[in-house]
Amino acid sequence: MAARSIFSAVPQAPPVAVFKLTADFRADSDPRKVNLGVGAYRTDDSQPWVLPVVKKVEQKIANDHSLNHEYLPILGLPEFRSSSSRIALGEDSPAFKDDRVGGVQSLGGTGALRIGAEFLRRWYNGTNNTATPIYISSPSWENHNAVFIDAGFKDIRAYRYWDAAKRGLDLKGLLEDLENAPEHSIFVLHACAHNPTGTDPTQEEWKQIADVMKRRFLFAFFDSAYQGFASGNLDKDAWAVRYFVSQGFELFCAQSFSKNFGLYNERVGNLTDCGKRHLITSARVPPPRWRRIVRTTWSISAVTRSSRSWFATLTLEPTPGVLFRMNGND
Ligand SMILES: Cc1ncc(COP(=O)(O)O)c(C=O)c1O
């Protein structure tokens, strides 16, 4: 008799809806089909499209024989990390002068969220405080809840965001949920181009949100997966994050370059952390703490072709907005 597999009790899991849709799309032979699932750049013929500037840099890299495949520092390519943080916080952010910004190169935006969640679970509001409430917008990107659950958090809650009747932001509900959240709760905030509603607070509304969060000692964990998509301008789309920094918040910002650079399968991301001012030593999260998490998660950050090309792209096109103007989105 064949021995039972040791894994025979592993339960089935439902497919991830958006990837199931892509698989169904591929399998469908109807010539009129249109894929409204994963939001990725496409040509008029529905073929994947690589940004011209990305192609240009890739060619440069291919011809650069000084590059090699040595291991990187654990936290990633230093130029990439600091460029990414500058994209989030702004070139002139006083936070850089005060040395209170840190960055960790990550496997896409998901990797940034995950190591950020790991960090918070280990060292935020006590140690291993799995009871800290995590608030996720209702609705939100489907993976947010799971990332925080898998990092060990036990109390995942929804905050009101979308008013279906008004077809817009439920500001009143959102502010009430902020008011009623236990102090030190963690709020995952979409930096711009909220997924899936596409509705963002106005600057005035962000100010109200920040006011309550400051008063109630709530932690802002920004998820910035679409910087450039809301307005066509990287700086405008970072307004909320930069405003929170200007208000003295300590915060995390998970950055994904999957969408804005069209680098989906290269897994290019960064986690920016910004600490408080006026500390004698550096106010950012101590790098050894991050190294500990990265070392047991993916060991050493990846230098993908694209994280190099992403960094080089900025050197090539020094004004970030240029990239988006080239695409006609500005
Ligand atoms: C809101 C949001 N956050 C994070 C991500 C993850 O990005 P990445 O593919 O870089 O891991 C996505 C991807 O769709 C997203 O929509």
Strand content bin: 5-15%
Mean pLDDT: 88
Global structural class: alpha/beta
Helix segment tally: 13
Poorly predicted runs: 318-330
Strand order of the largest sheet: 1-9-8-7-6-2-3
Distance between the termini: 67 Å
Ligands bound, unique: pyridoxal-5'-phosphate
Helical fraction = 25-40%
DSSP summary, beta strand count: 9
What overall geometry do the principal axes of the alpha carbons give?
globular
SSE order? HHHHEHEHEEEHEHEHHEEHHH
Query: Strand count, sense and closure of the main sheet?
Result: 7 strands, mixed
Q: Please state the CA-atom Rg, rounded to the nearest Å.
A: 21 Å
Compact summary:
It holds the Pfam family Aminotran_1_2. Belongs to the class-I pyridoxal-phosphate-dependent aminotransferase family. This protein has 330 residues and is α/β, with parallel strands linked by helices.
